[in-house]
From TrEMBL:
It is a multi-pass membrane protein. One of its GO terms (cellular component) is plasma membrane. Signal peptide: none annotated. Belongs to the CTL (choline transporter-like) family. The keyword Ribonucleoprotein does not apply. This is Choline transporter-like protein. It comes from Olea europaea subsp. europaea. The chain crosses the membrane at residues 54-76, 108-128, 134-156, 163-184, 204-234, 241-274, 294-313, 393-416, 428-453.
Amino acid sequence: MSDSQSSSSSSSSYDSASLGLPPPNVDGNHRPSDDSRSLSQGLNPTVSRHWRDVFWLLIFMVHLTVVGLALGVLGLNRFKTKDRLNIDRYTMGFLENKDGLTEDYWRFYAVAGGVGTVLGWIWLLLLGSRATQIMKFSVHILTTYLAVISVLCFWCKQFFWGVAFAIGASLQFLYVISVIDSRLPFTMLVLQRAVKMVWNIPEVLQVACIFMLFMLLWLALWSFGSAGVVALSIGDSGRWWLLVVLSVSLFWTGAVLCNVVHVIVSGMVFLVLFHGGQEATSMPPKPLMNSLRYAFTTSFGSICYGSLFTAAIRTLRWEIRGLRSKIGKNECLLCCVDFLFHLVEFLVRWFNKYAYVQIAVYGKNFNRSAKDAWELFQSTGVEALIAYDCSGAVLLMATLLGGLIAGTCAGVWAWIKHSDRVMMVGSTAMLMGMILVGLATVVVESAVTSIYICYAEDPSLINRWDSAFFTLISEKLHQRLQHRSARAREVLSHNIDYQIQEAGTI
């Protein structure tokens, strides 16, 4: 057994009892046994967990309180009456003053929230029958949609946004032709099995719908304050800075709620795979409620902490991989990109989405969960399979498309009523739509991450669940490991030949 596997197994065993899992075997894998502890009650409410990353829990709650109060003040200041709270007296004389009321712009955000919610619910409703078609459609239509929005921005003389969306369309196109098209069959295979798993656990779909409603309540307050900012008389630059701050806050809040769903779904999927089905006699009572309780108490700080970084790092990793595959033999550029690639890979070791499965199952803190998950993948070779899989990118594209549709609907109406505010309203409305659709897509992403964790922990769990899928995924893993080995031999041979040539010229 390798040192990294030993480290992973030892660190994951300390809290296994809280889930009712058996202690690790010699090879570090959790396997069902006849031991009484292996038949304990999964997410056992009688076994206490330690609170993790409490500092970040406090930071998030303080942030939520401060931002909530600021949103209320900004929205009320322009609600029905101009400058209700006399904020303009602090800006008069050095910033422009314009007429505008909160309710003039709040309705645009209501449209974005409604469209985002409908798209999210449609996605969940079609999850069992049309999810694959929706994901393929999102992959291939997103480039065109970005290009069309870029043209509309240029037509409306919004040159900055036109260039931004044109760059986005170009990057999306390059990514699709360099990565997605060659890997799409395997990616769709994994997503189909994840959809199958989620569809057989209807409780997690209900959880996603409930969290969308909770998010809508926060978005009602957030959009109220944002509408007040758009109506505020502090000039375009001041409004943009305030909207950026509020958008960062919304991104963090939305990521936290999405990752709470991620933890809940991951815990449910892991238990179903481990115990051999929802109807198994060894399944613990009320696993969903226990998972929900842990996600909002002892593990909530870890979720808040990880939500700050994981999404940004994952997106950066995908873009660098797509760029790396298109560089060719430009040694200077390849060296720079390789440096960024290894830097991002180091960050992935400490901030990855697979940490949430470890948080759900073992109740660890975030950094330890991310490190243990990555060491588990590297020690078993499953990391090569994960690097080949693009399911996260496909789901992100579906989320982006949903956000763009919501932002377009709000932006078009804003352009008709207030053409000078269209980009402010459209960009922030797009973020609202992305978060709402993301709460729907995260249930599938959680199933994918749990399947990989279970496959790395004990492949027999996947074999028992779906033997055909187990055979296909094992064959693909064997191919990827052979490919990596061949590439490593090629690089080593190239380096040796280069050193021989250098030695011959001296």
